[in-house]
């Protein structure tokens, strides 16, 4: 749920860093989507007891979401300059891997590799479909639709997960959860309504005056 706030952060960060207008339909749709997520997960949220560890987890999750939004802004700007997501992702992974390894060394985190087929299969899934293909596809949407509208897919992640859970794990849909699903879909309709926003990161052309 916390990661789904990327829609709001992207809208405000696009305004702050890319000078894109705050489209009312995007803000309204994002608000509906977040309200729908709250309804979907309300039973779990209402039963949870807050603690210091919970607040720390929320803070770290929010920091991660802000980093994700910052990456969206950087990709949008680079695409406006003519760089493709495939190339910029390759550079990001090439730089990020040694930085992560250095962080593990500094933090005394042991480097380990499990040669079992299950581990290698999961690792390959995260590397190829989950990172190379997934992020390239998503950041292509950022360039084509704008970071505000592309980030709405993060609101749909929990909805897809719940449907898989209903099929695999026996999740039971409740009236409140169904209301949340309706709100998420309504937010989707609002977010993808046509608007007058122009190319990512570029100023809007002025109309000529007579």
Walkthrough of the structure:
This protein is mostly helical and 210 residues long. Helix content is 73%, strand content 0%. The protein has helices at 6-18, 24-40, 42-47, 52-80, 85-106, 117-145, 147-150, 153-168, 175-191. α1 (6-18) packs across α4 (52-80), α2 packs parallel to α8 and α2 (24-40) runs antiparallel to α9 (175-191). The termini are far apart.
Lay out the secondary structure.
Blueprint lengths: L5 H13 L5 H17 L1 H6 L4 H29 L4 H22 L10 H29 L1 H4 L2 H16 L6 H17 L19
Helix pairs in contact: 1-4, 2-8, 2-9, 5-6
Keywords:
mainly alpha, globular, disordered C terminus, 210 residues
Q: What is the overall silhouette?
A: globular
**How many distinct helices?**
9
CA distance, first residue to last residue:
51 Å
Profile the largest sheet. none
Q: Pick out the low-confidence regions.
A: 196-210
The percentage helix is over 70%
Quickly describe the structure.
It contains nine helices and no strands. It is mainly alpha-helical. The longest helix has 29 residues, at 52-80.
